[in-house]
Amino acid sequence: MTQTQRLNVRKTIFLGSVLIAFFVYTYFIRDPRLRTVPPIVGSTMGTSYQVKIANSRMTKNQLRELSSAIKTLLANLNRQMSTYMTDSQISSFNKSQSTNPFFTEVAFGEVSSYAIELAKDTGGAFDPTLGPLIQRWGFGHTRPETTAPTSVEIVELLQRCGYTNLIMVSDRKIQKRIPDLELNLSAVAKGYAVDALTFFLTHKGLRHVYVEIGGETRVRGLNQDGEPWRIGLDYPDAELAPGESLAAILSLTNMAVATSGDYRNQYVDENGSTRNHILDPRTGSPITNRVASATVIAPRCMIADGTATALMVMGPVAGIEWAENQEELEAFLLVRDETGTLEVFQTSGFKRFATEIFVAETQAASP
Q1: CATH superfamily of 97-176
Q2: 56-72 pLDDT, tens per residue?
Q3: What class, spelled out in words, does domain 228-367 have in CATH?
Q4: Whole-model pTM above 0.85?
Q5: Strand ranges for 154-215 from DSSP E
Q6: Core-most of 83, 86, 142, 358, by most CB within 10 Å?
């Protein structure tokens, strides 16, 4: 081999090495693994959602793919249970006058089944069939009402409601006893979606996650600092923005928490009375028991979500007594006295999850 040939071979090897190094460099620079995964946020079910992933490394492409998959999952749940979508499955059920069995998709069936179970367990304090009343009181998907229904209207609307008029034929079939019956699963659907997202992320191998939709939250594992997730409970005041003032701070891992309150979704009617969206199924009217908020900690967010609504209706004495008898469930109720001062009612085990409670504990345990 001549000297010129040897030089050409060396140049070829050198150029090949440079090209390989360039491709390796550009591959990793193009999509390096993120040191900290930014929150995945978006809108769903008429509110916002947020997903935090801790102690995990992923590329930007993987993050984009995960974000897209989350949107698809939530869109599918919305398509099944959103009363705001005229072509959703629940809207089809509500519009139908048939009393024959109605075939549901999996999520719709599971949420309906739990809603009926919770209604029975709470003696009707929770009821998923209040659609006509919710609409008439101005908390539905059409333009809000500003005139309260008359007592005659309420009686007539109550005749179109009642969880006993809904039959769970099988896991995938529900049936009306009366043609005008309508379902509204807003008190449990967000919690179910949180559970579904958490399961999805866990199935993807992500062990440390925080999933929140409209304030309903479930966490697994630990946060980025290797500690239990810290979750603030809002002070129940309509004039305060979310997170502006806290009533308590929770420390959770592998649990879910949901809060229902009378202060976020309300309006003043023509008589100057404040109406909130929590309806008592037994009266057909907004609750008047002075419960400002009910927070529930449970293993699943759907349970916490629905139970929080039921406790708002049951009130502090009956609600806490009922909650004490439920396995793996803790509750924290804030109740206004005659002067508007908040009183705390909580189950005996709630404090083990609360790192701080900022409201005076005038009722620190079950009454």
Answers
A1: ApbE-like superfamily (1.10.3980.10)
A2: 889 999 999 999 999 99
A3: alpha beta
A4: yes
A5: 166-170, 173-176, 209-213
A6: 83
